[in-house]
Amino acid sequence: MASLLRSKVVVVPMGEVDFMMVNKLASNLGPVFNRSVDILKGMKMPEESFNVVRNQYYAQVILAKIERAKANNREKVIAVCEEDLYVPEENYVISYVDRLSGTAVVSLYHLRQEFYGLPEDESKIYPRLFKEAIHRLAHLYELPECRNSKCVNYFSQMMLDIDNKGEKFCDICSRKLTGVV
Ligand SMILES: [Zn+2]
Fold first, then answer.
1. How many CB atoms lie within 10 A of CB 79?
2. Cα–chain center distance at 131
3. How close is the Cα of 145 to the center of ligand 1, in Å?
4. b vs e for 101-133, b when ≥16 Cβ sit within 10 Å of the residue's Cβ?
5. Residues, Cβ < 5 Å to ion ligand 1
6. Which of these, 2, 15, 110, 136, could form a disulfide with 45 (CB 3.0-4.6 Å)?
7. pTM, 2 dp
8. How far does residue 175's CA lie from ligand 1's centre (Å)?
9. Does domain 2-134 have CATH number 3.40.390.10?
10. How far apart are CA 17 and CA 79, in angstroms?
11. Domain segments of the chain: what residues?
12. pLDDT tens sequence across 55-81
């Protein structure tokens, strides 16, 4: 019975995102959080999130849209998109999370090598997406940011930090996660 009450993770491909990559993400997240992961068939980028002046999408508005698609309160929903995201106090955000609504969004825009004038390299993008998604889901499960630079839950804003950290939780985060998951 308890297992039925466990909160599910739902992955949402948003806009014209690489579905193979999102699919791979969904299947790899399950073992990390020890629960079932569903993948929705896709959602359009909400038009109301587009800011013409900034030529970016407002992450908070996207989360509000995702929240309305939730089947129940226990679900943790994470969307993946290609578009450049922002919040008013930042130039851009790679991802954004709202604990209260249990929603998150990760963009591939700044994770792609092309953004840095480098050749496209799928083998780099996927691990970045995977780590960023785990990091954001950890927030949704109320794990505080980790100070261990090797931990997947490390607060990493620079791409180098994301590339350098591992794909696993450190012992401290693992223990905390077992407590909440
Ligand atoms: Zn940690």
1. 29
2. 8
3. 7
4. bbbbbbbbbbbbbeeeeeeeeeebbbebbbbbb
5. 146, 148, 151, 153, 170, 173
6. 15
7. 0.92
8. 9
9. yes
10. 10
11. 2-134
12. 999 999 999 999 998 988 889 999 999
